[in-house]
Amino acid sequence: MKHLSNQRLRACLIVLFWLILWQAGAWITDNSILLVGPFEVIRALAALLRESGFWLSAFTSFAKISLGFLGAFVLGILLGWLAFHFPFLQEFLAPVMTFLKSVPVASFVILALIWAGSKNLSVLIAFLVVLPIIYVNTIAGLSSTDRKLLEMAQVFSIGRWQKIRFLYWPALLPYLTSACRTALGMSWKSGVAAEVIGVPDNTIGEGLYMSKIYLDTAGLFAWTLVIILASGLFERLFLLLLAQTGKGLRGFRRSVPFWPGMRSRLSHPSPPPVLSIERLHKTYDGAEVLAGLTLTLTPDKPWCVMAPSGFGKTTLFRILLGLETADSGRVQWMHAQGFAEKESSQMEAGIGGSTEAAGGSANGRDIPPRISAVFQEDRLCEAFSPIDNIRLAVPGLSRTAIAAELKQVLPEECLNRPVSTLSGGMKRRTAIMRAMLFPSAAVIMDEPFTGLDEETKALVIQYIRKNSRGRLLLLSTHQEEDVELLNGISVRLNDVLPLEPVKTLTNAMANGTLTE
């Protein structure tokens, strides 16, 4: 508080210094046409305030310039959004935006006077000046959106409007704020300049022009002070409203239909899935990461993929999550019961090769189940609390229900704090809880226990074992003890051979393990 008071005092002293210097210059000049002091300006302003026409002029200019700015703000964001998603449109609009940024305001004013007259001149000029600034910054802001958060949103089926509000908008907001600080001042400068040239009735520009005609320097300074005050007021109010749009998740409700919540899933459980991977190939930059991988995973126990770094664990998980596309091969999700029946019929008929998805549609297409994930990175919204991060992915759960679950692995005092203030281990637990609370038939975790101490890891694993029943659990780890704590099945990815699919499926279902 004391530091803030000192800052304000220093600012007041600086302003006072320049006012004294200004008044001294007026005394030295001693010519009211060349320079007037602040006292004369204040008297002239007081005289203006008593005139009925002043308020009409101030309101008219304020309304027109504000309208031009707001129109450019809305259209700039819309065009920037479309150009960001459709690169051809960005190329198509590039010459127009370059033209708007390059042409002098005076040229626009003269052309506008010829084409449209002076009545709405300030609206048009403010619009043309602001539009390219908002457009360019919108594209830059959207391009800065964290791609990893967008992948998280895809996996957790976060709706389009929620992605715009909670992922794109926070990334865009700093760019828009910076753009508006520049554009707001320029809109007033260019708008009033247009009024001075066009001299429309009942505007600030008309008042400035008349002060020039009558060599009323004090009146000129008074109108300038009005412009500064009006511009500053509008800028402060607009930026305050803009900042409010980026605050808070409370009251958030998903506006699109969502898969049934956790309670519905528990009361009406879907059949546990079986994952069949057949001859999966994936190459990066000429290096084969996955070479004919073939295996089957059942939901009876957790599956722990173990392999040195670079052997394709993360690539495999990204393919399963739909974030990458394999070069060749097949991934099938099917219900365990339907899989067993189809496998039996195929063996009796002597049919080999791939199977159709038991959970597929009538035309035989494979329909994957809901999958939740823990990525190698936490991929959390840093400004949100642990509760709000989970609520974004699972809006069907109340804050109270989420808090009750989080308390089992996180201290209660951190549940409503921004995750940016939490430790790495707390963030990791939040990411794990998001995956577990999401109503999914399968959970994929990429090295989920990174950054957790032994005691915390044991607590988290206990929670995972308790709450993963009825779901296929697949995770990667470098620790044999993690497999033992999970009571899981170890799959060494670098040792798995591309076996015949039917043989692999049969062995996995019969023994619960992979055999060569």
What does this 3D model show about the protein?
There is one protein chain. This protein has 516 residues and is of the alpha/beta class. The protein has three domains: 1-30; 31-244, Orthogonal Bundle (MetI-like fold); 269-370 and 440-511, Rossmann fold (3-Layer(aba) Sandwich), CATH 3.40.50.300. Helix content is 58%, strand content 10%. The chain has helices at 2-29, 38-49, 52-85, 87-102, 105-116, 121-143, 147-155, 160-198, 204-213, 217-244, 262-267, 313-320, 336-349, 386-393, 399-406, 424-437, 454-467, 480-486, 501-511; strands spanning 273-284, 287-297, 303-306, 328-335, 371-374, 442-446, 472-476, 489-492. Strands 5-6-7-3-8 form a five-stranded parallel beta sheet, with helices on both faces. It has a three-stranded antiparallel beta sheet with strand order 2-1-4. Strand 1 (273-284) and strand 2 form a beta hairpin. The radius of gyration is 33 Å and the shape is elongated.
Can you summarize this structure?
The chain is an alpha/beta fold. It has helices at residues 2-29, 38-49, 52-85, 87-102, 105-116, 121-143, 147-155, 160-198, 204-213, 217-244, 262-267, 313-320, 336-349, 386-393, 399-406, 424-437, 454-467, 480-486, 501-511, and strands spanning 273-284, 287-297, 303-306, 328-335, 371-374, 442-446, 472-476, 489-492.
Give the CATH topology of the largest domain: MetI-like fold
The gross shape turns out to be: elongated
Can you identify the CATH class of the largest domain? Mainly Alpha
Would you tell me the structural class of the helices and strands?
Answer: alpha/beta
User: Which runs of at least 5 residues are low in confidence (pLDDT < 50)?
Assistant: 253-269, 338-365, 497-516
> What do the pLDDT scores average to?
81
In the CATH hierarchy, the architecture of the largest domain is Orthogonal Bundle
Q: How many β-strand stretches?
A: 8
Number of helices: 19
Distance, first to last CA: 72 Å
Fourth-tier CATH superfamily name of the largest domain: MetI-like
What count of domains describes the coordinates?
Answer: 3
The fraction of residues in strands falls at 5-15%
Strand order of the largest sheet: 5-6-7-3-8
Order of helices and strands: HHHHHHHHHHHEEEHEHEHHHEHEHEH
Q: What's the alpha carbon Rg, rounded to whole Å?
A: 33 Å
Main β sheet profile: 5 strands, parallel
* Residues in helices, as a percent range: 55-70%
